[in-house]
UniProtKB/TrEMBL annotation:
Its EC number is 2.7.13.3. The keyword Acyltransferase does not apply. It comes from the Bacteria. Gene3D superfamilies: 1.10.287.130, Histidine kinase-like ATPase, C-terminal domain. It is found in: Membrane. The chain crosses the membrane at residues 12-32, 181-204. It catalyses: ATP + protein L-histidine = ADP + protein N-phospho-L-histidine. Residues 260-476 form the Histidine kinase domain. It comes from Pseudoalteromonas distincta. Keywords: Kinase, Membrane, Phosphoprotein, Transferase, Transmembrane, Transmembrane helix, Two-component regulatory system. This is histidine kinase.
Length: 481
């Protein structure tokens, strides 16, 4: 099982969305709280401004005397807040106190001129109206100061109206509005959480469905996943289906290969057992010697088959794990020729080499060596005594660019045209030819060539024999390094 290094997608989605919701809820509450305080202040400021205007409108001059007629409706409106107290003072700049709480202005702390605040509501632009927060006899008040002029023929009187109201009612209104906002935000947050949980569950349903669909399958069920999925998961499903298709092909190849291997190994083992039994029962020494030679031949064939199978398994692993490197094709060819030289001498066959020296290709040196070794061993096996095997490397120009060509030409009996396309098949052997080996060598050579994107073909040699021609894409020459 794979290590689970990251939190689940569900947890990550919930963490991100919850964090965003908390941030949004916090700032929403802050904005709503500020708005509720501002709305409560504005509402009561309007009442104070309206009261000050009504009082000013009921002040008149009679025979050079300022008459103040306080409207009862004004104080009734302001006294609707039963928890609040009102104080007021009306003064004239030159005449001093007119009515109300005498010396009220002088007893206010934090009074006008220190922390005045312009109200959001200014009913008349030509009036001088100012609001501020202050303390009077130990209590918090909201004050309004209205200043204007009264005119009489040839004379003007400066009137100042000061009204103060305690802040309990407006604070209570702000608190109630804030509480309503908090309740609403909390409700919205809870609903949002529920919707987020449902939404995340719905979003992850396709993943759960794919998990259930794959889990219910048998190990051998490699059919493509066919179901409705979101567009964002199309690539994932395509990748899974592609992997399953590759796995199915690999399993099919493995089944066929296992069957063929079992057959190819069973045959020499059966022959080996039969010949050994016959040799044990045979009394004629000459016949026994021939039977023992056949036992050795079957043993050599079995050894060759097992060796080639191990080589093929090694190469199959390297095909998926070994990166290509830049290598010299002539140096690799000469190295393999030296390795098989002893075997060729024992058969009375000469190996010659000629060709370019600066041909660089990209590939797996081990795999390419196995390919060339199999081709050379096949050529040695089918070459008559005192014949040559010519190996060459050449630079060729084609329509698609330069290629490096490797040729192995022998002077054996050759292969009929109707059999040439079977030569590279796994376990293929020429019928009636006692020199036939395991039938794996040339199939391995073809697999290596295809892995290197090279082409391999079988041509007739003159006057007899075969030419193995392998064309590689030229990657680099020593002069270009």
């Amino acid at each position: 099982m794979s290590n689970i290094a990251l939190p689940s997608i569900r947890r990550q989605l919930l963490t991100i969305t919850m964090s965003l919701m908390l941030i949004i809820t916090f700032f929403t509450y802050i904005i709503a709280n500020n708005y509720s305080k501002s709305a409560a202040k504005l509402s009561y400021d309007r009442l104070l401004a309206s009261a000050a205007l009504q009082i000013f409108e009921n002040i008149h001059i009679d025979y050079h005397e300022i008459i103040v007629d306080l409207p009862s409706a004004t104080f009734e409106t302001l006294s609707m807040a039963s928890t609040d107290r009102l104080v007021y003072q009306i003064t004239q700049n030159k005449g001093g106190h007119l009515t109300g709480y005498k010396e009220l202005y002088t007893l206010i702390t934090d009074k006008a001129g220190n922390n005045w605040q312009r109200s959001e509501y200014d009913p008349r632009d030509n009036l001088q109206i100012k609001f501020w927060e202050g303390h009077y006899k130990g209590e918090n008040y909201r004050f309004i100061m209205l200043s204007d002029k009264l005119y009489e023929v040839g004379k003007a009187f400066d009137i100042n109206i000061l009204i103060g109201q305690t802040t309990q009612a407006r604070d209570q209104l702000a608190y109630e509005m804030n509480l309503k906002v908090l309740q609403m935000v909390t409700l919205i947050f809870v609903i949002a959480i529920v919707l987020i949980l449902l939404g995340v569950r719905q979003i992850l349903q396709p993943i759960y469905a794919i998990n259930r669909k794959i889990r219910r399958r048998s190990p051998m069920d490699l059919r493509p996943i066919d179901m409705s999925i979101p567009k964002e998961m199309a690539d994932l499903i395509a990748t899974i289906n592609h992997f399953m298709a590759q796995l199915e092909v690999s399993l099919d190849h493995l089944k066929r290969f296992t069957g063929e291997v079992a057959h190819q190994i069973r045959t020499p083992l059966a022959g080996l057992k039969s010949q050994a039994q016959n040799a044990m029962e045979e009394t004629d020494s000459k016949i026994r010697t021939e039977q023992l030679k056949r036992v050795l031949y079957s043993t050599d064939l079995l050894d060759s088959t097992v060796t080639q199978l191990l080589n093929q398994a090694t190469l199959a692993h390297r095909f998926h794990s070994q990166p290509f490197i830049t290598l010299s094709l002539p140096e690799l060819v000469k190295s393999v020729c030296r390795d098989v030289a002893v075997s060729a001498i024992q058969r009375g066959v000469t190996i010659t080499y000629q060709g370019e020296e600066n041909l660089m290709i990209k590939g797996d040196a081990f795999a390419l060596s196995q390919m060339l070794r199999n081709i050379l061993e096949n050529a040695i096996k089918f070459s008559p005594t005192d014949k040559e095997i010519n190996v060459s490397t050449q630079l060729h120009s084609t329509e698609l660019g330069y290629i490096a060509r490797l040729c192995v030409a022998d002077q054996g009996v050759g292969v009929p045209n109707n059999e040439k396309h079977h030569v590279f098949e796994r376990f293929y052997k020429s019928k009636g030819d006692p020199r036939a080996g395991s039938g794996l060598g040339l199939s391995i050579a073809k697999e290596v060539a295809e892995h290197h994107n090279a082409t391999i073909q079988l041509l007739d040699n003159t006057p007899s024999g075969l030419i193995f021609e392998i064309n590689f894409k030229l990657m680099l020459t020593e002069g270009e390094q």
